[in-house]
Every structure is written in C-alpha cells, then in structure tokens.
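Input record (one chain):
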Amino acid sequence: MTIFLQSLISGILIGGVYALIGIGLTIIFGVMRVINFAHGDLLMLGMYATYFLFTLLGVDPFVSIVFTIPLMFLYGGVLQKVFINRILNSLPQNQILLTIGLGLIMSNAVMLAFTSDYKILTTSYSSGSVDILGISVSQPLAISFAITAAITALLYWFLLKTDTGQAIRATAQDREAAQLMGINVNRMSIIAFGLGASLAGTAGALISPTYYIFPQVGSTFTLKAFVITVLGGMGSIVGATLGGILIGIAESIGGVYLGSGWKEVIVFVLFLLVLLFKPSGLMGKSNA
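The corresponding structure, as predicted from the sequence alone:
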C-alpha cells in the first residue's frame, strides 16, 4: 500500500507540471485554432535557459522562472507575429507543417550551438526527499508542484478577472464575434501565444533538475502535450489540468507495477479509451 501511495503522490506531482504544458497548448489552440507542434521545443528552450542561468550565473532553477517567463513570453509573441499570424486562415496541414518546421529549426539550432550531448542540472536538492507520514516524496517534484499550483491559480485569476483575460476567453469562444465587439483579436493572439510559450518554458525550468537536457527532448513533450490536450478536451483549460494529472498518475503507477518500458503504453491506452468512449475529451463539448 505504501508503494502505491508513493507512486500516486509522485504521479500527481509530476502531473501538475504536465498540466502546465497542456494548458499552454490549450490556450494557443483555443484562441487561434492552431495546434502548435513546436510546443515541446519551447519547453526545451526553457530547459536550456535554466541550465545556463544556473551554470553561468548560479541562479537556482526554480528562481530562474522569474527570467524565463518574460523571455519566453516575448519570444512566443515574436513567433506569432512573424510566422504564425501569416497562416491563421490557411489549411490545417500548412499550419502543422509550419509549426513542425519551427520546432526543427529550434532544436537543430540548439544542437549546432551546444552539441547534442546530454546535460544534467545538479543541485543540492536534486536527489533530496521529504518524509510525509512514512511516504518518501521527491523534494524537487514537491517544489515544482507548489510553483505550478501557484502559477495555475494566477493564470485562472488573470483569465477570469482581468479585462485582457476576458478578451482572450471571448476570442477563444468566437473570434469573429469578439472582433465585432471591438476586441483586437490579433493582439489577443500574440498574448495567447506568448502565454503558451511562457508556460512551456516554465515547465521546462521546473523539470530541469530531474530530467536530462538535450536538443531533441522537445519531441517527447510535444506528443505528451498533445495527448493531454485531447484527453482533457480541446480548448478546455480545466480539462488540460485534469488530463496532465491523469497522465502523470498513469505513468507513475504503470512504471512501478509494470516496468518503466510500459508507462508510455499505458498513457496511450488511456488516451485511446477516452477517444473511443468520449471523443470530445473529458471536459470537452460534443458540439465544439
């Protein structure tokens, strides 16, 4: 029972970071109806930024989000303005090809600049753990989850209570109606993509103390983000949060009881079951 509870808690903790990745992709899709296949590569950039802030300047990985969030927001805004904005009304396959191409440019540019060698960010607490009622909990995962919860709560407040947040939600619900009501939908698109990029970069910073850092790491998380988004319901932030935590739990428990090689299989079996019995996702609407 202790092993089960420990793996459950670990799954919830890592699932919180997964949720942050899924929320970023969901915001981008909700506002622009573009699936960003470069999302994982934005996370990879966040990991590298965190690594170099730590090794060159001594900035703690969890403190580095203070720098990572605004930098990735600006970078995402530039990507949207220069590239994504040009294909908003194009065929879906053109949108997919563009975002895949952007991802390849990012990963290969990083590989040329820093080689494809794996990098490890080691801190004093990387392998640390805390004991809660006899259950050992990873210290970096616990800190990551706490930061993720705070960022998610702040994001919900921003979307629900601020004028800009409500404008983003209105644009996501009906882009044309929002424009007719005087909302600058192009500006909302830039902000949405910037938010998505900053959330991906933040997730990269939070997992960097417990994950290998290399240029192709983004492809793994792009696929994971896509599964989380579809699992929770395309465009649903609550669904992305729930989907991320479910994926984290499935990976953790599956890895303990079936072996690490099976945890990805369990995730995709869960994904297929949801598509079979509720194609719109856990929190999605059938008429969406």
